[in-house]
Known about the structure:
Blueprint (H helix, E strand, L loop, with lengths): L10 H18 L4 H11 L17 E16 L4 E13 L1 H8 L8 E5 L8 E3 L14 H5 L2 E5 L3 E13 L11 E10 L6 E4 L16 E11 L4 E11 L2 H19 L11 H19 L12 H27 L9 H13 L20 H9 L4 H11 L10 H39 L1
Parallel strand pairs: 1-8
Antiparallel strand pairs: 1-2, 2-6, 3-5, 4-7, 5-6, 7-10, 9-10
Helix pairs in contact: 5-6, 5-7, 5-11, 6-7, 7-11, 8-11
Amino acid sequence: MSSITGKPNIVPIHILLLVANIMKISGTASSGYDDAQKLHAFLMTNYSKILTPRFNQSESVDVVLDLFLNSVIDFHPVSGIMTFSAALSIKWRDEIVESRWRNSGYDDINVTRIGMHNVWLPKIYIRNIANIASVYQFLSTLDSEMSYVTYERTGNAILTCLAVLQTTCTTDVTYYPLDVHTCDITVVTIDDYPAIKLQTTYVDVVNDYTYNNSEWTITSVVTASCYDIFSEVNFAVILSRKPVFFVTNLVFPIMIITVVNGLSFFVPIESGERLSFGTSLLLMFIVFLTTVIDVLPSTDNTLSYFNIFVFIELNYSCLVVFGIIITLFLYHRSTTKKVPNLLKRITLFVLKRHKTLPIEIDTISKLNTPNTNSTTMIDLYDQGHNKTNSEDQMEAVNDEDMKPRVNWRDVSIALDKVFKTITTFFTVCLALVFISFHIWIQIRTKG
């Protein structure tokens, strides 16, 4: 019907909406407390908590498990125990409740809640749990009695359990402090496979409500599998260590001490401070290790590369001190003792390679006067003295009657140059390793 002006008449529409609201109110008025209580009594009459909620007991019950991780409270790589807080959602379909609800006459009630102690629950547990096996954990008896299962009119049931659990994990600290650990939360059922079939719907247990961990980056993978005897759902929580703190406070100080330790051979032997400098750095390294030993992984499963690195650095520092002692011993050894011919050849070869000798000869000490030792000659050459000394030395070398002679101080100087080359090479390699390690961390952090 339309008015004279051609506009639609909205009065009948308002009347229809009013009638619909009245019918809605009258339809829901019966879903009161008494009706809900009567519905509970009707549904629970001769209800068995032991038998599966199927009219055909040979049919399996599909139980859907979803885990929502709240936070990882603690994870210890040595013991392999992860403590976490999570919510476990358990869903299934109850044919008994659905059939009785449909015949109860309370079709206006869509959802009801029944105490969990009065209905059938799937018997499930966590296989690798560290403390208790059941997922149904409660703070007290009152909390247990007030827990309920939510049923829909279609028979769908849902139960949510909140708990703080501890599970055992297989740890691998090979790449510490860049180690990655996978902690499985494997939910299985005690019942036979034909009775209960575990499933899952989500592929991730980490969501927007998961709290970040200050030490670990949390990711996850969810899988479900069925076997001949039982079925299981595995929630794999992957923990990747955040390495910035450990690199800054462990790796970098050790590398600095190692680099400075190699500078011990650049301290002049004549100063008398070389040995005290080297031993002080060694003691500093040992004291530093005692302060950080608590944070190093001490598991016997695998030995981390970082532990091997620390062991190598400790031996390197000890070898540096040992080299300092050897060079000082040879430097101050009596010149009356003869140097073996093999050691003479090695000494002359090293000094030639370092361009210490002014000419291609097989002797050093004969170039000096009786009151001048070979060290003075080398220093004069290294400092670029005038040509007169070099010409006099050349004339002395050309004298066929002069026999080559190398004393222990020359051996000490040659050995000192070898140690300088080794420590310099080691320092350069260490710097390249640290730069590559830093780039790797930056790429991994951004990724």
